[in-house]
Amino acid sequence: MRFPSYGQYALDVSGNMLEVYATGAWTRATTEAAIEEIHALIPKFDQQPWGALLDGRRWVLTTPECQNRMAESILHCIDHGLCRAAYVLDTGMVKRAQLERTHPATSTPYQRNYFHSYFSALDWLNTEGFSPYTQK
User: Fold this and answer.
1) What DSSP designation does 30 have?
2) Which run of H or of E encompasses 83?
3) Which end of the chain has the lower number of beta carbons within 10 A, N or C?
4) 25-54, pLDDT tens digit by residue?
């Protein structure tokens, strides 16, 4: 199997949610670029609580150094209003195990959950008060 030389991502802010669509094998450069763009989007939430939906079904994993940077970024996001994160992954456990390494030890009300279906993740975020349709 051939993996792409670097991963890609797409970001979208709608309502009180950030959607991240990740593909490919992420290098340090891809991770740093995504983090920079995500941090630049945080002010759009106007210091209000927000949720994130991360679709990783076409993501291929990262290096350990990328995991450390992702964990630092998640803490930064929590400090700036991130309350809920829904990860959409395929049925294998390798991606989830890698993402668990980015789970921050924090006493804030932050929660994350894992799903196999995009719509299940969206439903969970909605029940938690986060929706792309929420008006600011």
Assistant:
1) H
2) strand 82-88
3) N
4) 888 899 999 999 999 999 999 999 999 999
pLDDT digits (tens, 9 = 90+) for 66-107: 888 988 999 999 999 999 999 998 876 555 555 555 566 666
112 Cβ contact list (under 8 Å, min separation 6): 84, 85, 86, 87, 103
CA torsion, ordered 79, 80, 81, 83, to nearest 10 deg? -40
* DSSP symbol at 15: T
Cβ-in-10-Å burial (0-12, 13-18, 19+) of 121 comes to buried
Whole-model pTM: value is: 0.85
Residue 18 DSSP class: E
Contact 134, 98 (CB under 8 A): no
